[in-house]
Design goal:
The structure holds 2 protein chains of 2 kinds. Chain A is of the alpha/beta class. Helices cover 40% and strands 15% of the residues of chain A. In chain A, the strands form 7 sheets. A 5-stranded mixed beta sheet of chain A has the order 14-13-17-15-16. Chain B has 2 domains: 4-85 and 200-233, Roll (Ubiquitin-like (UB roll)); 88-175, Alpha-Beta Plaits (2-Layer Sandwich). The mean pLDDT of chain B is 90. In chain B, strand 1 (4-9) and strand 2 form a beta hairpin. Chain B is globular. The chains are: A alpha/beta, B alpha+beta. The interface between A and B is medium-sized, with 32 and 35 residues.
Chain lengths: 617, 234
C-alpha cells in the first residue's frame, strides 16, 4: 500500500517496517531481465507460481522476479534461498520437479546445477560459483535482491536512506564535497570527475537547472546500463534526487532508448511509485526541495549518447552534436545549466552518501575509484555482466571470471570500450583496467563493453566492422568524421580484399590522427581508435594482408581458400551435400575436391567435416 | 557602450569586441583563417572544421574551430602552427577528393597546402557545408531547405523531397553555394578529376605578408569572409 510520505520520520518508519517485515521461510528468486526473458523466464515464473499454488505452498514461499543477475548465458536462472541453490537453464517443464524436490524436501535436482567449465564440477550454491566469486558486486547484488516493480523491496535494502540523509540537512556543498572525495568518475565513457561536474553545474548562472540520466546505451555487446535501469530503477531515481538537491535542479530526465522496452516500463513504474510515495514531486519529505523526473525515449541513434546530441534530441530537434566550446554544465538543455550523468554514475551516488566517500575510494586504483560493470562477451567460457573494482587486471577478468579461452583456441586480444575503444593484445593483459591506463594504452574504459577475441579473429576485419558501425551511426555533420570514416573504410576494404598498398598504413595513421584532433564530437574524435589501436598492436596482420595477400586468421574471404586434404578425406560426402554452391565434387571412395571458382568461402563444409580434412589457407 | 576583451592571436595583442568569434576577430585584423561553412551573418555550426585553431589554456593546447570559439579575456590562440597546417591540409584533402569540381574547394586545397591527393577522386556536387540551409532558415525565415538523413546518407533537400510553396525562389541558396563555380580549367568530367593547383602562386604573396590580408584571388574563390563582406558593400 502506498502512503504519501510527508516527513523524514514517515520514511524512516516505512523503511524500518519493511526491513523487519516477516518474510516467508523460503524465497525463490527468478531473473526476469531481458537476457533471461529471451530464454522464456516469464513462462518459468508463471509455471512456478501455479505449481506453488497447486502444491499449497503459496503462503510459505515468496517468488521474487528480479532484474538481471549478470549471468545471462545460463538463463533462465532460479535461486532458492535460504539454501542458496542455483539452477540454470530452467524450463517450465522442470518447475514441478523443483517444487516437489527442492522446495518441499531440500533435495537438489542434479541436472539443473551449473557446471563449472574450467574444473568440470557441478556447483550447488550460488555463492560458490567462480564467476560470481571473483567479482565485487555492489551494484549488481542489489539487482538480485530487488523486484523492480516493488518500491518496498528497495526500502528493505536501505533504499532512499541516502536521500533522507541528504534532505535531512546535508548542505549541497557538503554533498558535492563527498562526491569529489569519493573520486567517482563518469561511467559513460569520458571518465570526467563527477564531483567537479556537479560543482560547475551548481555554480553556473541560471534560474533553472536540469539533471539528466544518459541511458542511451548503444555499443554493440554492452548492456550494463540497461540491466541496472531495468533491475533497480529506484537507485537511479534516488541518485538523481540527491544530485538535483546538490545542484539546485527541479527537473530531471531519463533519456532511454526505445529499444529497451522493459527499461522504459520499469522506470516509468518506478517514477509513478516514487510520486505516489511522495519521493518525487513538490516539497519532498517536507524538505522544501521539489524534483520530478520524466522518461524521454530516444529513437536509437548511437550519436544521441553524446551529451549535446542527447540534449538536442530531448529538445525535440534532430539528434546532432553541437560545438562544446562552452560546456553543457553552463549551456546545456534549452541553454540552461544541465548535468548529464550515466546510469551507473547515478546509481553509485546513494551508496557513496550512505557508506561515505572513504568506503568508495578504498576500492579501485590510482585515479579511478569504485567498481565498474563490464559486459564480458566473445570467446571466453563465461559471458555476462561482470562487476569488479576499478584497477582489476584484464587477466583476472578474462581468465578468472571469464574462465579463459573457449574451445581451447588461444586468446589474442580484448576489445574494450565499444566501437570507440581499442583492441589490447594478450601481452597487455596485466594492465589494470582504469580510465588513465587504458587511455594511455590506446583504448578506453568507455561504457564498459569487453569483447574477447581469439586466434580465429582477424583484427583488420574487426576494425572494419567497427568502422562500418560508426559510419552508419555518424550524424554526418562534420567533415573529418563523415568523409574520414568513408575513406578509412574504403582503405580497409581494399586491404581485406587484397588491393592494399603499403603506403596506406601511413595514410590510415595520419587520417586517424586528423579525425581524433579535429572532429566536432566525441564520436568522431574516437572513431579512429579501432583502427589506430589494431595498427599499433597488430601491424603484422595488416602487413600480412597487404604484402602477403593472406589473412592469418582465415577470415577475409577474398584472401583465403578452403582445401580438402586428400590424405584425411574419407569421401563420406557430408561436405558435398552441405555445400550450398555445389562447389564440391567427388565420387564414392575418392577424396573430394573444391572448385575454387564456385566456392563462396562460407565455411559450411569445414563445419560439417567430422575428420578435420578441410583447412583454410 | 561596446565592451571589449584583450586576447592574443598569433602573438598579436588584439582588442576584440566582447561576444565576437575568434574567426571574425582574426579576419578583421587581417589574420587569414580558411573557412568554408562560415558565412557572415549566419550562425556558425562548426561543420567544415577548416577554421581550426589551437587554443592554449592552462598549459594545454586544444584544437577547436575558431568560428564557434568566443573571444575571452586573456585567451591565447595560434592559427597557423605546424600542427594546424597539417590537420587543415588533411581536411582539405578529404574535401577536394570528394568534390574537385568546384573552384571554392580547389582554392581551399591550394590555400591549405594540398600537394597531392591520396584518395581516389569522387565527383560529388555537395559537401554539406549547410550554408544554403542556414541562409534559407535564418536570413529569409523560409526554412524551405533542410538536412535529410544521417551520416553517409545525409543530404540537403526540400521537406518531403518536394519544393514547398513557402520557397520564395530567391536563389540565395545558389548564390552562396561554394559548388556553383567550376574550376578555372573548366568542369571536370568523371574520371578526369584532378587537383588544379593553378593558383599556387598566390600563396607566395600571402607568405611574404603574413601579418596582413593581401586580398589574394583565392579568397574570392573560397568566398572568404573579407571578400564576401566587400561584395555585399559593393
Amino acid at each position: 500500500m502506498s502512503v504519501k510520505l510527508k516527513t523524514l520520520a514517515d520514511l524512516n518508519r516505512v523503511r524500518a517496517s519493511s526491513q523487519t517485515k516477516k518474510t516467508k521461510p523460503t524465497t525463490v528468486t527468478m531473473c526476469c531481465g531481458t537476457g533471461c526473458q529471451a530464454s522464456k523466464s516469464q513462462r518459468v515464473a508463471e509455471a512456478m507460481k501455479s505449481a506453488l499454488a497447486s502444491a499449497g505452498l503459496a503462503n510459505s514461499v515468496e517468488v521474487r522476479l528480479t532484474g538481471c543477475h549478470g549471468f545471462c548465458e545460463q538463463g533462465p536462472i532460479v535461486v532458492i534461498d535460504p539454501a542458496n541453490i542455483l539452477y540454470r537453464h530452467v524450463t517450465p517443464e522442470d518447475v514441478p520437479e523443483v517444487v516437489n524436490k527442492t522446495i518441499r524436501t531440500g533435495e537438489v535436482v542434479d541436472r539443473l546445477l551449473y557446471t563449472d567449465p574450467v574444473s568440470g564440477r557441478k556447483i550447488v550454491k550460488e555463492s560458490e560459483i567462480p564467476f560470481y566469486q571473483a567479482q565485487d558486486r555492489i551494484l549488481l547484488s542489489q539487482n538480485r535482491q530487488v523486484d523492480p516493480a516493488h518500491i518496498e523491496d528497495y526500502f528493505a535494502i536501505g533504499g532512499y536512506s541516502a536521500a533522507a540523509k541528504v534532505l535531512g540537512g546535508m548542505l549541497p556543498e557538503a554533498i558535492i564535497e563527498e562526491i569529489k572525495k569519493s573520486g567517482l568518475r563518469g561511467r559513460g565513457g569520458g571518465g570526467f570527475p563527477t564531483g567537479r561536474k556537479w560543482e560547475q553545474c551548481r555554480t553556473a548562472d541560471g534560474d533553472e537547472k536540469f539533471v539528466i540520466c544518459n541511458a542511451d546505451e548503444g555499443d554493440p555487446g554492452a548492456y550494463m546500463d540497461r540491466s541496472v535501469l531495468e533491475g533497480n530503477p529506484h537507485a537511479i531515481l534516488e541518485g538523481m534526487l540527491i544530485g538535483s538537491y546538490a545542484m539546485g535542479a527541479n527537473q530531471g530526465y531519463i533519456y532511454v532508448r526505445k529499444e529497451y522496452p522493459l527499461a522504459v516500463q520499469n522506470t516509468r513504474k518506478a517514477i509513478e511509485q516514487a510520486r505516489e510515495w511522495g519521493l518525487l514531486g513538490e516539497n519532498i519529505l517536507g524538505s522544501g526541495h521539489s524534483f520530478d523526473v520524466e522518461v524521454a525515449r530516444g529513437a536509437g541513434a548511437f550519436v544521441c549518447g553524446e551529451s549535446t546530441a542527447l540534449m538536442s534530441s530531448l529538445e525535440g530537434k534532430v539528434g546532432e552534436p553541437r560545438p562544446k566550446d562552452v560546456h553543457t554544465v553552463k549551456d546545456g538543455l534549452w541553454h540552461k545549466p544541465s548535468c548529464l550523468n550515466n546510469v551507473e554514475t547515478w546509481a553509485n551516488v546513494p551508496m557513496i552518501i550512505n557508506n561515505g566517500a572513504a568506503w568508495f575510494a578504498a576500492k579501485g586504483s590510482n585515479g579511478s575509484t569504485g567498481t565498474k560493470i563490464f559486459a564480458l562477451t566473445g570467446r571466453v567460457k563465461n559471458t555476462g555482466l561482470v562487476e569488479v573494482a576499478m584497477g582489476t587486471p584484464l587477466r583476472k577478468i578474462v581468465h578468472d571470471i571469464g574462465g579463459g579461452a573457449y574451445n581451447g583456441v588461444a586468446i589474442k586480444a580484448v576489445q574494450t570500450g565499444g566501437p570507440s575503444g581499442g583492441c589490447l593484445p594478450a601481452d597487455k593483459f596485466d594492465l589494470p583496467v582504469d580510465f588513465d591506463t587504458l587511455a594511455a594504452a590506446g583504448s578506453m574504459v568507455g561504457s564498459g563493453g569487453m569483447v574477447v577475441m581469439d586466434e580465429h579473429t582477424c583484427m583488420v576485419d574487426v576494425a572494419k566492422y567497427f568502422l562500418a558501425f560508426l559510419q552508419d551511426e555518424s550524424c554526418g555533420k562534420c567533415v573529418p568524421c563523415r568523409l574520414g570514416l568513408e575513406r578509412m573504410l574504403e582503405i580497409l576494404t581494399d586491404i581485406t580484399e587484397g588491393r592494399g598498398r603499403p603506403e596506406q598504413l601511413e595514410l590510415l595513421a595520419d587520417l586517424g590522427e586528423t579525425m581524433a584532433q579535429t572532429s566536432l564530437c566525441a564520436l568522431g574524435k574516437t572513431a579512429a581508435n579501432p583502427v589506430l589501436s589494431t595498427l599499433r598492436y597488430f601491424r603484422k596482420e595488416y602487413e600480412a594482408h597487404i604484402d602477403g595477400k593472406s589473412c592469418p586468421a582465415g577470415v577475409c574471404r577474398e584472401l583465403i581458400r578452403y582445401e580438402i586434404d586428400p590424405e584425411v578425406c574419407t569421401a563420406c560426402g557430408a561436405c558435398l551435400k552441405a555445400c550450398p554452391h555445389k562447389a564440391i565434387s567427388g565420387k564414392a571412395k575418392q577424396p573430394h575436391t573444391i572448385d575454387q571458382d564456385a566456392c563462396a568461402k562460407c565455411g559450411i563444409c569445414k563445419d560439417v567435416c567430422k575428420f578435420n580434412a578441410i583447412s583454410v589457407c | 557602450m561596446q565592451e571589449h576583451v584583450t586576447l592574443t592571436i598569433d602573438g598579436a595583442v588584439i582588442h576584440a569586441v566582447k561576444g565576437a568569434s575568434v574567426l571574425d576577430t582574426a579576419m578583421e585584423y587581417g589574420i587569414c583563417i580558411p573557412a568554408l561553412c562560415h558565412y557572415p551573418g549566419l550562425s556558425d555550426i562548426g561543420a567544415c572544421r577548416l577554421c581550426i585553431v589551437e587554443n592554449v589554456a592552462g598549459g594545454k593546447s586544444k584544437v577547436t574551430t575558431s568560428c564557434t570559439l568566443t573571444v575571452a579575456e586573456g585567451m591565447v590562440v595560434h592559427t597557423d602552427t605546424e600542427k594546424i597546417q597539417r590537420l587543415r591540409r588533411n581536411i582539405a584533402e578529404l574535401l577536394v577528393a570528394k568534390a574537385p569540381n568546384s573552384r571554392a574547394i580547389q582554392d581551399i586545397a591550394v590555400r591549405c597546402g594540398v600537394k597531392n591527393v591520396r584518395y581516389s577522386f569522387r565527383n560529388d556536387n555537395c559537401v554539406l557545408c549547410g550554408r544554403c540551409v542556414r541562409v534559407c532558415g535564418e536570413m529569409w525565415q523560409a526554412k524551405a531547405l533542410g538536412f535529410i538523413g544521417r551520416g553517409k546518407d545525409r543530404r540537403v533537400d526540400f521537406p518531403f523531397g518536394r519544393k514547398p510553396e513557402f520557397c520564395k525562389t530567391c536563389n540565395t541558396c545558389i548564390d552562396i553555394c561554394p559548388m556553383t563555380i567550376t574550376p578555372c580549367i573548366g568542369p571536370m568530367k568523371k574520371g578526369q578529376e584532378r587537383l588544379c593547383g593553378g593558383c599556387e602562386g598566390q600563396l607566395t604573396m600571402t607568405k611574404n605578408f603574413t601579418d596582413s590580408c593581401v586580398w589574394c584571388e583565392l579568397g574570392k574563390g573560397f568566398q572568404c569572409t573579407r571578400h564576401v563582406q566587400m561584395a555585399s558593400r559593393e
